[in-house]
Amino acid sequence: MFLQCLLIKYYKLGSCFAWGNVVEWGDDVKVVSEDEAMMLVNHQATGDVCTLMMCLQDKGTVVRQMMWLMDHIFKYTNFGIVSLIHGDFFIRQGKAHRDQQLVLLKEHLDKHYRSRDRKWIVLFPEGGFLRKRRETSQAFAKKNNLPFLTHVTLPRLGATQVILKSLVAQQENGIPAGGDAMVSKSKGLQWVIDTTIAYPNAEPIDIQTWILGYRRPTVTHVHYRIFPIKDVPAEPEALTDWLYQRFIEKEDLLSHFYRTGAFPPLQGQAKAISREMTLSNLWLIVIQSLAFLSGIMWYCILQYFYHCLF
C-alpha cells in the first residue's frame, strides 16, 4: 500500500507539474476526507485532472483511497499503467460506446471499489470537454426548453446513476440491507462534493501546458459545495433534475467568477473566503524529478523493444 501510494504521487502529480497555484473556495472538504464521497466536476480540458490531483494532495488519505473515472486517452500517458494498477476506470466517450461503458463501470465498481478500500470517486458528468460538447448541449437545451449554458454543458445521467446505485448503502428499517449495521464495513457514499474549476479569462490549461510550462504561471480556482447523500434523489427523473440544477449553479458561479475574479460567498457569509493551496517546493522538485526520470525509463524500454523487434 505504501509503495502504491508513492507511485501514485510520483506519476500522477509528477506528470502534472504545478505550473502556478491553486486557490480553493466554498466548503472545506477536509472535514469529510475520512468519509465516502463522490466528486462531480466540470470538465474543460485535460488539465482539470492535474488541478484535482494537486488539490487533493493535502486531504489526508484521499489520494490513495480514491478512484478516478477518466477519459481513456489518459491510459496512454506515463501514469496510465499506475492508474490501471490503482484500479481507476478509463471510460470511452461516444454514443456508440455509452451503454457498454456503463455495464463495464458497474462491473468495475463491484469488483474493485470495496475490495480496494476506496472512499472517494471522481466523475466528470458532462461526458467530454466543454469546447467539444457545448454546441451539442446548447442545441439539446433549446430543443427541450432547458437553460442555455455557456461555461458548462448539461450533464449526463448514466455514470452518476450507476455510481449511486452501486455505492450508496441501501437501507431497510434503518440498517443496511442484507446485514447488520454494526458489522457493516462500509457506510456507503455519504457526501456528494460539487466541484467547480475556473481558469482566469476562461482559458483552460491542458496537460501539455502543465508538463512543459509554455504558458505563464497562473492561478487556478476550485470551488466546493458539499451535499449529504440523503439530499440526492434516487429516481432517474428527479436525479436528472438535481444534476441539471447543480450545473446551472456552476454556470452562475463561473459567470460571477469571470466577471469579478472571485466566487460568490456561501449562504450566510458576508464575504467569500478563499484558501491558497500550497505544497512544499522541495517535495514538488523531488516528485517532478522522479516523473522526468520515469519518462527516460519508458523511452529506454520502448527503444529496447524497438531494437529487439526491428
Automatic annotation (TrEMBL):
CDD domains with a match to the protein in the record: LPLAT_LCLAT1-like
Q: State if Transferase is listed as a keyword.
A: yes
Per the record, what is one GO cellular component? endoplasmic reticulum membrane
InterPro entries documented for this protein: Acyltransf_C, Plipid/glycerol_acylTrfase
Q: Where is the Phospholipid/glycerol acyltransferase domain?
A: 37-160
Q: Name one GO molecular function term.
A: 2-acylglycerophosphocholine O-acyltransferase activity
Instruction: Return any one Pfam family short name.
Output: Acyltransferase
Biological process (GO), any one: positive regulation of fatty acid biosynthetic process
Question: Where does the sequence pass through the membrane?
Answer: 282-306
Q: Which UniProt keywords apply?
A: Acyltransferase, Lipid biosynthesis, Lipid metabolism, Membrane, Phospholipid biosynthesis, Phospholipid metabolism, Transferase, Transmembrane, Transmembrane helix
- State whether keyword Transmembrane helix applies: yes
Family affiliation: Belongs to the 1-acyl-sn-glycerol-3-phosphate acyltransferase family.
Under what name is this protein listed?
Answer: Lysophosphatidylglycerol acyltransferase 1
Originating species: Chelonoidis abingdonii (Abingdon island giant tortoise)
Name the gene behind this protein. Answer: LPGAT1
